[in-house]
Specification:
Layout: H1 2-9, H2 23-47, H3 50-78, H4 90-110, H5 116-140, H6 144-156, H7 158-185
Helix pairs in contact: 1-2, 2-3, 2-4, 2-7, 3-4, 4-5, 5-6, 5-7, 6-7
């Protein structure tokens, strides 16, 4: 699935079957990556505890930060632009914080409960808070090219900006608690000793 998304669906991929400027392709590829990176800490926070969720968020967010910063540095360097260093971008560095927040907050709000309503509430709360923080930082303090893209997106089509900023993580806040609840039915969850 990751290979298919990267090669066939990604707008920068080799074939980009949905088109070079298709919003759905961007949501599928980048949103899916966000869901993996933030879904692991969320599920550990919901099923185990806040500390496991926060620690997993730190690890996953750190890996995503290094990968994305290197990726964007390579894209800009390949285009001959070397004035931007995405490793120093605070909004990019905040991926570590997003992972910690979503995992820790989900674990703190559920407090070990596997009540489905509580899990959905915790997942949605943590996801929406991370979405708001991410949208705010991209709009205000990210590096100039990313900040300009975010500001243009909100100015030109606010509905599309809301969809691309919030839909992937709201979907995550619903899908992961459902997955977590199904995991509890089959006894597939971390055990406390």
């Amino acid at each position: 699935l990751i290979y298919v998304l990267a090669v066939y669906v990604n707008v920068g991929g080799q074939y980009h079957v949905l088109g070079e400027t298709n919003t759905i392709a961007v949501i599928l590829v980048n949103g899916f990556a966000e869901m993996i990176i933030l879904g692991i800490p969320l599920v550990l926070g919901l099923l185990w505890n806040k500390w496991a969720g926060g620690a997993a968020g730190f690890i996953m967010g750190g890996l995503y930060y290094v990968a994305q910063a290197g990726h964007y540095n390579a894209i800009y360097a390949g285009a001959g632009v070397t004035t931007y260093n995405f490793f120093g971008d605070i909004s990019m560095l905040y991926w570590i914080v997003y992972g910690v927040i979503i995992g820790y907050m989900a674990g703190a709000l559920t407090n070990g409960s596997t009540n489905f309503k509580r899990m959905i509430g915790a997942g949605l709360t943590a996801s929406v808070i991370v979405s708001v923080l991410k949208a705010y930082l991209n709009y205000t303090i990210s590096l100039a090219p990313a900040r300009q893209m975010a500001q243009d997106s909100w100015a030109q089509d606010p509905v599309l900006a809301v969809v691309t900023n919030f839909v992937p993580l709201i979907a995550l806040g619903v899908i992961v608690p459902i997955l977590g609840k199904v995991m509890t039915w089959y006894g597939i969850q971390p055990q406390r000793h």
